[in-house]
Amino acid sequence: MADDTVRFEVEGGYTGQARALTVHPDGTAEVEVSGHRSTGRLPASTVAELTAALDRAGGLDAVVPGAGTPPGADRQRYTLTYRGATAVAHDGAVPDRLQEAVRLLRQAMTSLRR
Per its UniProt entry, which superkingdom is the organism in (predicted)? Predict the structure, then answer.
């Protein structure tokens, strides 16, 4: 069985900081920003909503709209890994089927950094 851990990496944007969020199936999560790590726990409802959104998105390996540098200094690149598959997308070019998952992951990252 594939690993249900979700890994979400964000690069670029105005700050240029690399940020990463790892969400485990039990809700434990780690956020890494510029070498600093914080941990926390997401509510079971959030984890369920996230995994449902990813399951609805289907196979992530088929979603790679661009792996190069996104146009514009403020654009961010997202790398999302779930169940052994990886998708790469950029601000303004996130496929519709991944929009909900990216939104939930960005919210989770923000809430755990507080």
Answer: Bacteria
pLDDT tens-digit readout, 56-73: 887 676 555 555 555 666
Q: What is the mean pLDDT of each run of 10 residues along the chain (114 residues)?
A: 84 80 96 90 95 86 55 80 88 86 93 80
CA distance 110 to 114: 7
| Nearby residues of 65 by Cβ (< 8 Å), 6 or more positions away | 88, 89, 90, 93, 94, 95
The whole-angstrom separation of Cα 105 and Cα 63 is: 17
Domain that holds residue 33: 6-113
Residue 1, domain member (yes or no): no
Asked whether residue 59 is assigned to any structural domain, the reply reads: yes
